[in-house]
């Protein structure tokens, strides 16, 4: 008698595990965004989320759309974005995101946002103009951008709208 092939069982278990991971990632981000946290509480929450994401990455690699669905992948990216207290972690995530983009496994804009976030955290100028700040007169402007003359070409490569459209959309979304 030929032994039974249980490869399909591994697939089902893997899918269930990744679905749970996706749900966990989404829950982590929702909690972070839902809570009105002091800066200290926010930093504690993002540190906890960073640690959780790091464990997930060790287990399954970068949580891409195939592994955790669109919402789970976006949640993982947001957690990396918000991990400002651990720039080395953000840099590791950026490398993983870059590899996933090469495989078309996640949206291209994830790279641009995280790259710019890391630049701003390091006190450098951003490249894609994704990071904005409020000026005292409630005017929203981008943090300094290098090579501004080619900015919208770079933004287009990462599926981002032109900067002026982005700022207008940001203001509308935030009622500014």
Extended strand count: 2
Structural class: mainly alpha
User: How many distinct folded domains?
Assistant: 2
Strand content: under 5%
General form: globular
Count of separate DSSP helical elements:
7
**Parts with pLDDT < 50 across at least 5 consecutive residues:** 1-14
Summarize the structure.
It is built from 7 helices and 2 strands; from the N terminus they run H-H-H-H-H-E-E-H-H. With 176 residues, it is mostly helical.
Task: Please specify the SSE layout and strand pairing.
Elements: H1 7-34, H2 39-60, H3 65-81, H4 87-102, H5 109-121, E1 132-134, E2 140-142, H6 151-157, H7 163-173
Antiparallel strand pairs: 1-2
Could you describe the 3D structure shown?
By secondary structure, the protein is mainly alpha-helical. Helices cover 65% and strands 3% of the residues. It is built from 7 helices and 2 strands; from the N terminus they run αααααββαα. The protein has helices spanning 7-34, 39-60, 65-81, 87-102, 109-121, 151-157, 163-173, and strands at residues 132-134, 140-142. A hairpin with a 5-residue loop joins strand 1 and strand 2 (140-142). The radius of gyration is 19 Å and the shape is globular. The chain starts with 6 loop residues before the first helix and ends with a helix.
Key descriptive features of the protein:
2 domains, single chain
């Amino acid at each position: 008698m030929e032994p039974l092939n249980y490869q399909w069982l591994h697939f089902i278990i893997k899918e269930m595990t990744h679905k749970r991971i996706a749900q966990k990632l989404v829950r982590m981000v929702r909690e972070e965004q839902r809570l009105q946290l002091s800066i200290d509480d926010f930093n504690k929450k993002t540190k906890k989320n960073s640690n959780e994401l790091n464990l997930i990455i060790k287990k399954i690699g970068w949580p891409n759309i195939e592994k955790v669905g669109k919402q789970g992948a976006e949640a993982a990216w947001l957690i990396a974005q918000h991990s400002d207290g651990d720039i080395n972690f953000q840099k590791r995530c950026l490398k993983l995101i870059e590899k996933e983009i090469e495989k078309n496994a996640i949206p291209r804009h994830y790279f641009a946002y995280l790259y710019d976030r890391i630049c701003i955290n390091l006190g450098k100028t951003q490249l894609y103009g994704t990071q904005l700040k409020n000026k005292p007169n409630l005017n929203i402007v981008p943090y300094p951008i290098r090579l501004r003359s080619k900015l919208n070409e770079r933004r287009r490569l990462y599926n981002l709208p032109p900067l002026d459209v982005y700022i207008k959309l940001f203001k509308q979304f935030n009622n500014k």
